[in-house]
Amino acid sequence: MRIAVLAHEQFPDRAKTAVGILRYGDQDVVAVLDRDSTGTTVGDHLPDIEQSDVPVVESVDDAPEFDALVVGIAPIGGGFEESWRPDVRSAIERGADVIAGLHYFLSEDDGLVALAEEHGAELRDIRKPTDDLTVAEGVARDLDAEIILTVGTDCSTGKMTTTLELVEAAREAGLDAGFIPTGQTGIMIADWGIPIDRTISDFTNGAVERMLKEKADDHDYLFVEGQGSIIHPAYSAVTCGILHGAMPDYLVLCHEAGRDAIHGYESFSIPNPGEVVDLYRDLADGVTSTELLGGALNTYELDEEASERAITEYERDIGAPAVDPVRHGAGKLINQL
Length: 337
Hints:
Layout: E1 2-6, H1 16-24, E2 28-33, H2 42-45, E3 56-57, E4 68-71, H3 85-93, E5 97-100, H4 110-119, E6 123-125, E7 146-152, H5 159-172, E8 177-180, H6 184-190, H7 204-215, E9 221-224, H8 236-246, E10 250-256, E11 261-262, E12 265-269, H9 273-284, E13 291-298, H10 304-318, E14 322-323, H11 325-328, H12 331-334
Parallel strand pairs: 1-2, 1-4, 2-3, 4-5, 5-6, 7-9, 7-10, 8-9, 10-13, 13-14
Antiparallel strand pairs: 11-12
Helix pairs in contact: 1-6, 3-4, 7-8
């Protein structure tokens, strides 16, 4: 499928959906929409991306033909920016579908629905869960698969990226590994999953458990994409639900080098990562014991030498091996399995 990705004023640092699709998706990306970076290419911002020659354009009107427009931004609160509407409408008028992972559902926007019906386009809301979810049975620990969960010191520390890098490294090592997507970007990449942060709170654990049960007979290792952080003042509930629903054998703690406060909530400091590990393990112990497999450190802002120093310090803090999975892959962590 040929897609254009909307990432206005956010690419690449705050357009994690766009970056995730470019890095891991199977879609043929023909353009990225970002008014602030018009005239550049994806490779100018993300030199390690395979689709580096994708142009960054100002609007849908400047993009080559595509089958779908993907909203590649995941703003706090999942709202719809009205400044995106002209591009969304232009895409629909070209007969393209629109795919979004927002809490604002395009399929409930009367104006967009009418326009889509007129032009034969589909509005796909990735963050809309099925209506048959139930509470957990508490059986994930009994499944015949090793379960590895990525957790974080904050949001946007690389949990989805780390999970996908772990799956890739596991498969390269000859392990039978599966990916359990829990967020909108992971669902777009894998083309299946349940958006955990949109489930009724009573059903969050059960939604994770359902996905694990569905894949447990297919794989020996299941890597669960984590969400939020147990110390986040806004998103800790979804983190706890995934932790207790997954009942993981192992955790991988994700952190961004140099980040010492919760993004967007800077009055809340991030403790030493070793203390965060203890918090996760203590919380998990209520339903099942878990071990720390290792750590993943986002060192995107650092040069290679500073990255190595930061990883060494991080390993010392958490008492386990650590990697920057984008720079170096996740093989070092898979060796622990």
